[in-house]
Amino acid sequence: MLFDIHADSTIPIYEQIINQVIFGIASGDREAGVTVPSVRDLAVRLRVNPNTVARAFQELERSGIFESKRGKGMDITDTAPQLCRVRRQEIVGQRIREALREAVSSGLPAQTIRQLVEQELLRLTGENHQ
Amino acid sequence: MLFDIHADSTIPIYEQIINQVIFGIASGDREAGVTVPSVRDLAVRLRVNPNTVARAFQELERSGIFESKRGKGMDITDTAPQLCRVRRQEIVGQRIREALREAVSSGLPAQTIRQLVEQELLRLTGENHQ
Amino acid sequence: MLFDIHADSTIPIYEQIINQVIFGIASGDREAGVTVPSVRDLAVRLRVNPNTVARAFQELERSGIFESKRGKGMDITDTAPQLCRVRRQEIVGQRIREALREAVSSGLPAQTIRQLVEQELLRLTGENHQ
Amino acid sequence: MLFDIHADSTIPIYEQIINQVIFGIASGDREAGVTVPSVRDLAVRLRVNPNTVARAFQELERSGIFESKRGKGMDITDTAPQLCRVRRQEIVGQRIREALREAVSSGLPAQTIRQLVEQELLRLTGENHQ
DNA sequence: GTGGTCTAGACCACA
DNA sequence: GTGGTCTAGACCACA
After folding, report:
1. What pLDDT, in 10s, does the model give residues B43-66?
2. C43 contacts C5 by C-beta, under 8 angstroms
3. In angstroms, what CA-CA distances link D22 with A127, D46, D82?
4. Which one in A31, A120, B6, C56 has a CA-CA gap of 20 to 30 Å to D109?
5. Region at C3 (left for phi over 0; alpha for psi -120 to 50; beta for the rest)
6. Quick check: D69 and A12 CB within 8 A?
7. How many CB pairs under 8 A join C and D?
8. Which residues of chain D have pLDDT under 70?
């Protein structure tokens, strides 16, 4: 599982970790039953405070995505892949919804907003939209 | 100028005020040279502490959108409309960019993202996209 | 007496009025015994709140530069010219002193400060310094 | 970094803090990447309310001189030294410019002004000007 | 531990 | 009346 943490993002580090775990599992990077790196190891790897990783893992456990193996670390649950696909859609959907709600309330014409979105999507996906 | 403040939003109140002033001026709600409601009045109207309004106004002054007339209150500057149109585009554009970047990095197929966006845009603008 | 009021200066308007009166008298623009414009007239001329002019005049009276002619306006006192020459030196001296004290405390080398001063003086007086 | 705060100065406390940070960094007192005293610590040290320090730090952050490391405190940015040297020159230069402009407009002869400046500079730097 | 936001309330200079 | 500054104190998210 790859992590790409930006300490200076507006998104808190623990939330970046959570989302990247969710996105990774939803995309099939990891399968159920697999053991997850320890809090300590991941903290070292990401150069991040262990408390921060611990917090992310706790929330993932509460969500039913991780389960703790009695003192032996964390596993990915059987239901994780399904849960993560749902959660991914929610997370992404909500942020898009908020961005568009703000855009509309700003008074920018719908046409301009649509252009902003389209142009950015093309830039990000590098895909031709025909 | 209409204000719609949500005390429980993740966006700080003073920033909501700033953005709504910017959006309002960018949309032509208020013209340059016009006097702005006083800190105290707006605070009462928004049921918010005067310090919070004052902070928003000070940032707007630093941005060249308001100018303080000593002892008399705040005016909208001559350059405000232009500045606000630029700022609006930046604010809206950045939030859209971040939402889409996250969406793409989540592994959702571009087609799904495009659907999410399109569906939300239609819902918000109530417009028929033919 | 000429006035040059800048509403947006960092120097309060009443203080600009006071200083310009003092500088004017010190420079011999007005002689003792001459009647001064009324608060109301000057306020109109300077497009300034009458309270502001009144405050300036009060301070000038307290300083012995103006004297009120029982309800008939203000005169310049006999001692005004002498007082104003002293005050002018104090006002100018103090602001220069503060500026230089800050400059020195900023850590800029004395040589750099001297250059800044010299260059500005030349610019302002348009005079050749040989 | 030494601080010398005067609660009774006409310059607001938060601005004194800002200027002294700028002057200190411009003079090489602190290097980039170094962590800054915490808001709470500095507030205790300066016997000032934490909010006042926080305001100064926030303006320094907005100026690109400090950067906030979420949950960890403030760092001096890489560009701070350069920014601070520029800012120092601006701050000092502007105050000198204003003082001299006033001096010239006061009607004092250029020669007298030059003497005032020279005498004060000598007093402050204790240096022989030959 | 860190900074960020907000409230309540005081006091001040200015117009 | 206006805004600007400051204090005291609370609460929160984050690491």
Report:
1. 999 999 999 999 999 999 999 999
2. no
3. 47, 17, 10
4. C56
5. beta
6. no
7. 105
8. 127-130
